[in-house]
Design brief:
Distance between the termini: 92 Å
Low-confidence stretches: 1-37
CATH class of the largest domain: Mainly Beta
Oligomer: single chain
Shape: rod-shaped
Number of strands: 23
CATH topology of the largest domain: conserved putative lor/sdh protein from methanococcus maripaludis s2 fold
Order of helices and strands: HEEEEEEEHHEEEEEHEEEEEEEEEEE
Helix content: 25-40%
Structural class: alpha+beta
């Protein structure tokens, strides 16, 4: 007699349930990695920046005029007026200072009087010469008398010529009493005062011409050849964002005995009125023929026997592209490249050996290298 509370177990049905559950479990496990592989991988990138291979050299200098003239009177005398002050802009022909003209006017009057006397003497000598020639042609005068009259007439002509030149000189001297500016410029020094007696040629007013300005710097002897061949530009401390083209105009033939540097003068053809004399400037020199290169970390370099390459990431699309590059040099921590990637490109700098060109990435940080 059997107990109705116990029923036999169907092992075939249990096996089917176990197989179905296992299949569902394996299917779920196989889908999880696939979903994870579609996620963008974060990468660290650095921008590519090309610069000249030879470093730029900068020097501090000052702005000076190319021509600074020490102006003085061409005649001696007593200063009556000084008409300009330091820093004043003067134009061509503008009076700068004036001498007392009393003595110069007296000399001019004396020359005029001598000219009048010489004119009268010449008229008398010419008349005597004419009469003597007439008498000699008639035989009423000797040859000796004629020669003497001709000599007197020649002397009178020379005296008149000398008197005329004297009048011109005194008139010029009178005009020299006014010291005039011979070019447009700025007064940088006044070395005379009213009442002062000055000699001819003594410096009275110093004027800096404004046509062309230049930057004056001291160059060490190791960079003298670099200064001759390199390109240069100037920036002002008062206007650091503005650059002015500079051209080497003059280089001192000998070094300064104290500093052992060579004085170099660079002309500034584009400098306008905004560039004032005495301003502090920075002169930067570089070699225009130098190759442009970019420096990146060594960890950014990818190589599998087919040449050096870099992974370039697109921050917007998240795509990777493997770019072959030309390596200029290897350094202790960096690699120097000369081409292959564009300026500003975002290059992956860490974990490049584990990347796949078909893999999507996400730029989480950018380093300025």
């Amino acid at each position: 007699m059997s107990d109705s509370r116990f029923h036999p177990i169907n092992f075939n049905g249990l096996a089917v349930v176990v197989v179905v559950f296992g299949a569902l479990t394996l299917g779920a496990c196989s889908k999880a990695p696939a979903e994870k592989s579609e996620e963008a991988r974060p990468v660290l990138v650095a921008p590519v920046h090309y610069e000249t291979l030879s470093p730029q050299r900068s020097f501090v200098g000052t702005i000076r005029p190319r021509i600074e003239t020490d102006m003085g009177f061409r005649v001696p005398g007593k200063v009556a007026k000084r008409l300009v002050e330091v820093g004043q802009v003067v134009e061509v022909g503008q009076p700068l200072a004036v001498l007392d003209e009393v003595d110069l006017k007296l000399q001019a009057e004396q020359a005029d009087a001598e000219l009048s006397a010489a004119t009268g003497v010449l008229a008398q000598a010419s008349a005597a010469e004419t009469r003597t020639n007439d008498l000699r042609s008639r035989g009423w005068s000797t040859q000796a008398q004629l020669d003497q009259v001709k000599a007197s007439a020649d002397e009178a002509r020379a005296r008149l010529n000398r008197a005329q030149r004297s009048v011109e000189l005194t008139r010029n001297s009178l005009s020299y009493a006014n010291l005039l500016a011979d070019s447009r410029g700025v007064v940088t020094a006044t070395l005379v005062e009213p009442g002062q007696v000055v000699a001819a040629g003594q410096t009275a007013i110093r004027v800096a011409r404004s046509e062309e300005k230049e930057a004056v710097v001291a160059i060490p002897e190791t960079l003298v050849n670099f200064a001759r061949s390199g390109a240069a530009y100037v920036t002002l401390w008062s206007e650091p964002g503005k650059q002015y083209v500079a051209k080497l105009r003059e280089l001192a033939p000998t070094a300064d005995p104290a500093t052992r540097t060579y004085l170099a003068k660079f002309s500034l053809p584009d400098a306008g009125n905004q560039v004032s004399l005495g301003m502090t400037a920075t002169l930067t020199m570089s070699d225009p023929q130098s190759e442009r290169v970019a420096r990146l970390p060594l960890s950014a370099l990818f190589s599998q026997g087919k040449g050096a390459s870099l992974y370039v990431a697109d921050p917007e699309t998240g795509k990777l592209s493997l770019k072959p590059v030309s390596v200029k040099a290897y350094e202790s921590r960096d690699v120097v490249i000369s081409g292959g990637v564009d300026e500003g490109a975002k290059v992956v700098v860490l974990g490049v050996q584990k990347l796949d060109p078909d893999q999507k990435v996400r730029v989480v940080s950018a380093l300025s290298f």
